[in-house]
């Protein structure tokens, strides 16, 4: 368990490797990895989840007020725990809502070139029930088109199809800009640029090591 109640956020466009970086941080620093996508999937049985489901089934982004309710409910349960947020906040409205319940210590922003993101997303297939993501170039399933654990079919999300990717990335950038500016003005935003997660990771590890002691040495990642 991390010795300080560190509250961290990882920001990055779709395809930036956020999930991988978050898993490594969680493992190295003993932080809970709180993924907005995971909480949404888990909430689908409840009242807020029913709202979210209408959007998810159509491959649309879940609106601010729905994702905010899901995330704040989960964070309220973790007031005395250190954590790492993945996929939230994506908009200024979400960032302001988060401000009302906690103070962030560090915000990590992943800056990946547009062409790299486009290539990664176009090669991405998902297992809808679990949210497991495969990349046909560097993380393919054992059997083409089939989830490794369940044997169920993989799908390509509508917004991962090449023709939709550019619009999706533009939309993310427009929404994320004021969020970045807010955290930059507070002196807690740290940006990392590159095309490979393995090359960005050592810098992320060094930054966080200056905030809390790691529970695993870097070479174990």
Distance between the termini: 18 Å
What's the total number of strands? 7
User: Number of helix segments?
Assistant: 8
Residue-averaged pLDDT: 88
How large a portion of the residues is in β-strands, by DSSP E? 5-15%
Summarize the amount of helix as a percent range.
40-55%
Strand order of the largest sheet: 2-3-1-4-7
The biggest sheet, with number of strands, parallel, antiparallel or mixed sense and barrel status, is: 5 strands, parallel
The chain-level structural class is alpha/beta
- The Cα radius of gyration reads 17 Å
**Unreliable stretches covering 5 or more consecutive residues:** none
The rough form would be described as: globular
Element order: H for helix, E for strand: EHEHHHEHEHEEHEH
